[in-house]
Amino acid sequence: MRHLILASIITFGGALSAMADDIIKVQTNKTVAEALDALEAAVGNAGATVFARIDHAAGAEKVGTPIAPNQVLIFGNPALGTPAMLIDPRAGLFLPLKVQAYEDANGQVWLAYEDPKETMDELDEVEKSPVIEKMRGALKKLTTAAAG
């Protein structure tokens, strides 16, 4: 029984570590709102479409449970998403892309997103396709521009 518990701890601990590696964080000196405004502008300048901007802190405030500033931008570009969905329609479960801006417990603001290669790792043919590298490059470029 002790071996089973130890194996479970090791497996679960490894899974948590792997999940943490799937999230890419970009530090910024901007506020959450400024960082998301800059990201929204960069997305528009890149020819992509913003579908939604979600303010989690505003939602938390409505239920009387304040949290630090925390917003998510949901956006996409058919030039990147369509090829992925042609390979495997289930790629649509993971699209459009999203980036979160949040303030941590130390007051530091981060832009964070999940690596699309990891997001779509269950879709072998999509994960191996060049479109994933294009998505990764776009997210890196957009978050770097927004953070600056």
TrEMBL record:
The organism's place on the tree of life at top rank: Bacteria
Keyword field: Signal
Limits of the DUF302 domain: 54-116
Keyword Signal in annotation: yes
SUPFAM superfamilies named in the record: TT1751-like (SSF103247)
Pfam families registered for this protein in UniProt: DUF302
InterPro entries reported for this sequence: DUF302, TT1751-like_sf
Keyword Chloroplast: no
Span of the signal peptide: 1-20
Listed name of the protein: Uncharacterized protein (DUF302 family)
Source species: Ruegeria conchae
